[in-house]
Amino acid sequence: MKGYTLSRLAVAILIGMALALQGVSAVVAAPPPNDNFADATEISVLPYTDSADNTEATLEPDEPQNCDYSSNTVWYWFKPTTDGVFRADMAGSSFWGTTLRVYQATGPGFSDLSLVGCATWSENRVTFLAQAGVTYYFQAGNLSWYSPGMLQFHLQKIPPPSNDNWVNAKLISTLAFDDDVDTEAATQEEREPSPSCGYPYSLGTIWYAFTPQETRLVSAYVSGAWESLLAVYTGNSVPTLTEIGCRRYGELLTFRANAGTTYYFQVARFGGGPWLHFHLEVTPPPVASFYFWPSDPTVFDTVQFSDNSYDPGQVGIQSRSWNLGDGTTATGCCPSHKYGADGDYTVNLAVTTPDGRAASTHQVVHVKTHDVAIVRLGAPQAASAGQTRHIYVDINSNRYEENVQVQLFKSVPGGSQLVGTLNMLVPVRKSNRTTQFDFSYTFTNDDARTGKVTFRAVAIIMDARDALPADNEAVASPTKVNRGSFQSPLTP
User: Fold this and answer.
1) How far apart are CA 39 and CA 29, in angstroms?
2) What are the backbone angles phi and psi of residue 296, rounded to the nearest 5°?
């Protein structure tokens, strides 16, 4: 028995003796048979499953407490006859707060144990590479702040992927190619190359092989686990492989694949889930794209064009060729141009990558020059409080029929005040004829106290940008305002 449980056993014996004196029999609960490290249950056949009630299980003095604190532990041991990847877990236990530790043993005591891996919570597991003839111990229990109960322990050997080794690389015959693989049991071969962009360790590798029938650019990437690695090699054996390129974290790897040459792809992960997705395709053409500003240009604007193209193969754009639609051509990323007349101009951009892939795109640039002007703002020279007078605004449009709003303001101490707005369709008229916006305004006692009112008009094209807004505002000569005969009841 473990040392600190003797008092509990002694109490149970005393209780049993007392009950016996009264003619009552008592059953004292006993720890499970594999409670102690020295009594660990041997695992001889895989897959292995065991159920154990660890309610009365205990801890021995100096029992290891790696990764997290546990109580009520039981022990198992296993000596594999062949190398391989094994997985241990406690799925199905009656309590969620499980703790499982795997050790490699070099002797008979706790001091001879070396931690291989650990997992807490019932859905987690420990996957480890085991060597033939080496003894491994499994310490299973509950987290100390969870109640014990019926635990489940499982151990199984996991077969490696079919393309775990270079010699068994999965052959790729057609593009595009996609493959999903569970790499949990993947291993590394002796003398397997370490990629130039990788870590000095990994959780195992898998291999693919591709021999193109024609020379072309190809692109590959790995997804699924964020901490992943992809390298490509040529060569005839593992020790003689020569690296062509290397990428990490799912980045795209693009290279020129020569016809008849076999390329080997090494795929690995350094963390995250075991599932990886490998993709290989003929590198797609670049995507041509551009934008321009302003988006509604006039003949007075210099239009700025900007290339927005990109290369999915991540080689880059080498050249850009522009046709601006009016006979003008340009190169480079960002030409600018001023069009001489209104019209619709089809602008074309063609891009090329250093390896010769090309693409083009076009957009229509609508050049339309909208312009209205206030020709005249008429206001009376004098008026009296209470008197209604007309204020008119004459608008001219010499290019297009325009939907125009005119806003009329009057001066007040410290600023201006909106008097009213009018919306009208302003047609193009011959001989500089105008369209008149007619406002009515009744002068007030406040106007009379000020002594004058100055009217200001603003013309706005409602559905377009005015190319020359400087003549869209006019100010009339001040109107002198006297009290006249009208007096408000509130007038002092």
Assistant:
1) 18
2) -125, 65
Rounded to the nearest angstrom, the gap between the alpha carbon of residue 447 and the centroid of all alpha carbons in its chain is 63
381: CB partners within 8 A, 6+ apart? 477, 479, 480
The tokens for 215 are 């020379």
Strand 70-78's sheet: what is its strand order?
41-43, 70-78, 135-143, 98-105, 113-120
- Amino acid code (one letter) for 298: T
Q: Which tokens belong to 308?
A: 């927005």
> What backbone phi and psi angles, to 5 degrees, belong to 350?
-115, 130
Structure tokens given for 196:
């130039």
Q: Encoding tokens for residue 387?
A: 């008197």
CA distances from 397 to 302, 369, 435 (A): 23, 11, 9
Domains and CATH numbers, the chain: 31-158 (2.60.120.380), 166-282 (2.60.120.380), 290-367 (2.60.40.10), 372-482 (2.60.40.730)
Q: Using an 8 Å Cβ cutoff, are 204 and 185 in contact?
A: yes
Q: Is the Cβ–Cβ distance between 322 and 335 less than 8 Å?
A: yes
CA–CA distances in Å: residue 266 to residues 56, 232, 408 = 50, 6, 75
Amino acid at 418: L
SS3 31: coil
pTM for the model stands at 0.70
Of 288, 332, 276, give the one whose Cα is nearest residue 312. Answer: 288
Q: What does the alpha-carbon distance between residue 370 and residue 255 come to, in Å, rounded to a whole number? A: 52
pLDDT digit of tens for each residue in the chain (492 aa)? 343 334 333 434 444 454 445 554 444 468 999 999 999 999 999 999 999 999 999 999 999 999 999 989 999 999 999 999 999 999 999 999 999 999 999 999 999 999 999 999 988 899 999 999 999 999 999 999 999 999 999 999 999 999 999 999 999 999 999 999 999 899 889 899 999 998 756 778 999 999 999 999 999 999 988 789 999 999 999 999 999 999 999 999 999 999 999 999 999 988 777 899 999 999 999 999 999 999 999 999 999 999 999 999 999 999 999 999 999 999 999 999 999 999 999 999 999 999 999 999 999 999 999 999 999 999 999 999 999 999 999 999 989 999 999 999 999 999 999 999 999 999 999 888 999 999 999 999 999 999 999 999 999 999 999 999 999 999 999 999 998 754 444 333
Would you mind telling me the total number of residues written for the chain in this entry? Answer: 492
Distances from the Cα of 189 to the Cα of 106, 161, 266, angstroms: 25, 13, 12
